[in-house]
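**User:** My hope is that you can spare some time for a protein that puzzles me. I have put the entry right below:
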Amino acid sequence: MEFDFADQQPKLLMLMYGLIAFVLVVGGLLLLLDVVPAWFARRREAQLVAASMSGAPLPRRPKQREGLFALFFLLPTLLLLTIGLVVPAIRTVLLSLMDRSSTNWVGLRNYSWMFSEDSIVRVLVNSLIWVLLVPLVATAIGLIYAIMVDKVRFEAVAKSLIFLPMAISFVGASIIWKFVYAYRGEGDQIGLLNQIVVSLGGEPKQWLLESPMNTLLLIVIMIWIQAGFAMVVLSAAIKAIPADIVEAARLDGVNPWQMYWQITMPTIRPALIVVVVTLSIATLKVFDIVRTATNGNYDTSVIANEMYNQAFRYGESGQGSALAVFLFILVIPIVIYQIRNLRQQREG
C-alpha cells in the first residue's frame, strides 16, 4: 500500500503545528528560567563590582522587588498547577452535581447513589481493605528487609533485588502475578500457586474468581511492589542513627530486642510515617493492578477503577465525578497530617 501524502496532509499539518508549539513552549520556558535570570544575575554582579570599586555602600535590593522576582520564578509553576490541577478539580466538582449528560443539576443525588448502591458499597469496602492492609503490611515487610540486610555481606546486591519490583510497572507486575495465579483445569498447572497446591495434594482453584480471596491476592501484588520502597527509606533511616547512641546503649547492656524498641523505632519514626503516608495515598489511587488482573470483576473493583467505568464505559459522568471527588476527599486528611507532621519536625 502506497503512502498518499494528499490524504495524510491534514495529519501532517497537525503534527507540524504540534512540533512548532512544543518548540515555542520549551523555548519560552528556557528563556524564562535561564536567559532572563542570568541577565539579572550579570546586572547585579556589575552593580556590586562598581560599588566595590567606587567605595560606595553595596546596593540592596528592595524587599518588594525581591518578592516580584520570586513571583517571576513561581509564575510558570502556578500557571501549570492552575491549568492542570485547580481548573480540572473545580470542573469535576461541578460535574458531580449534574446528571449523566452534564446539563441538569441533580445536587447530591450522585453522592447518595454512591452509598446506597450495593455494588458501589462493595467497591468502597474493597478500597478500605486495600488502604488498611497495603501500607501496614508493606511497611512491616520493608522494615524487616531493612533490618535483615543492614550491614550484611552483599548488602547492595540484596537491596537491589528487593527493590527490583519497583522498576516494574503496575501493569507488568499484574501480568506476572496473573501467571502465578493462573488456572488450567485438571492436570499440569502453569500457575505457580496452583502447581504448589497440586504438589501438596490439593485441588487447583481459580484464585482470581473467588471473593474475597481475589482482593487479598491483588493486594499481595501491591505489597510485593511497594515493600522495596519501604525498605530503601527505612534502611536509610536506620543507617542515620548516630553511632554514639548505639554504642552507649550497648555499653548499658541493652539486648537486641530492647535496642529495636527503645532506640531504632523511636529514631526512625519520622521515616515510618513518611512511608505509611506515601503508601496510603498510592493505595487509594490504585487502578492498574485491578484493571489488568480482573478488570474489576468478581467483586474486586476499587474507587479509581469504578470511577473509570462510570465515567468512560457507562457514560455516567456525574457518578464518575462523584467518585473522583470522594477519592480526593479521602486523600486530603492524609496530606494534612503529613504537612503538620513535617512542620512539627522542623519546629522540633
